[in-house]
Amino acid sequence: MAPDPYALSCGWWAYGKVGLRRFFRLCPAEFRRQRLGHQALACVPQPQAWHQGGAPVTPVWATLFERLVLAYLKNITGPLLDPLQFAYRANRSVDDAVNMGLHFILQHLDKSGTYVRLLSVDFSSAFNTIIPTLLQTKLTQLSVPSSICQWITSFLTDRHQLVKLGKFKSNSRTTSTGAPQGCVLSPLLFSLYTNDCTSTDPSVKLLKFTDDTTVIGLIQDGDESAYRQEVEQLAA
């Protein structure tokens, strides 16, 4: 009978427990108060094809630690997040973003002399654009403790990467930009990184779902100046 490719050996699990204990000794005290639900403790098999797609393969114990950080960050930053960011938030989905956009548009078009401009933006390799030092500044502005900010900066800097295809491996490279694709923390970190990307004019709405952004210009009497200014700032 062929061995289960997803089975965890006793030696691997022992290494995982040692690594987790080491992480908890080094992590800020705030993380130790977090609790993991049963779902967070489940080991989900990852298909081989998914590994070949370039997503990072991290130990289960490291993913569990990320979940502790994720829960802590959500508790702190939740009330401060842009209300027009609909991704990775409780009781919100892409359907809510679409319905909110339709509400803005239809409510505006009920008035005379109005029309709407709409621009959809999908940032290419969005998670790779995060600059850790700039993210740390933004997290500090969101009342995240300095110890947590420093840990996240350390988590994102001096990461070693390589590509493995079959029995072949590329040379290792070190990167200090971006957040790893596929990691638990990356989507929230990007949302926090772009949290201050909001409209300064009430006639322009920026709806966000992670790296998908829709700019809605509510135009009155042909005046598109505010809409065009927001588009230029978004592209800058």
Automatic annotation (TrEMBL):
* InterPro entries hit by this protein: DNA/RNA_pol_sf (IPR043502), RT_dom (IPR000477)
Which PANTHER family does the annotation name? REVERSE TRANSCRIPTASE DOMAIN-CONTAINING PROTEIN (PTHR33332)
Quote the protein name from its UniProt record: Reverse transcriptase domain-containing protein
Instruction: Please name the source species.
Output: Hemibagrus guttatus
Q: Which PROSITE patterns match?
A: RT_POL
Using the record's annotation, list all stretches that form the Reverse transcriptase domain: 1-236
Q: Which domain of life is it from?
A: Eukaryota
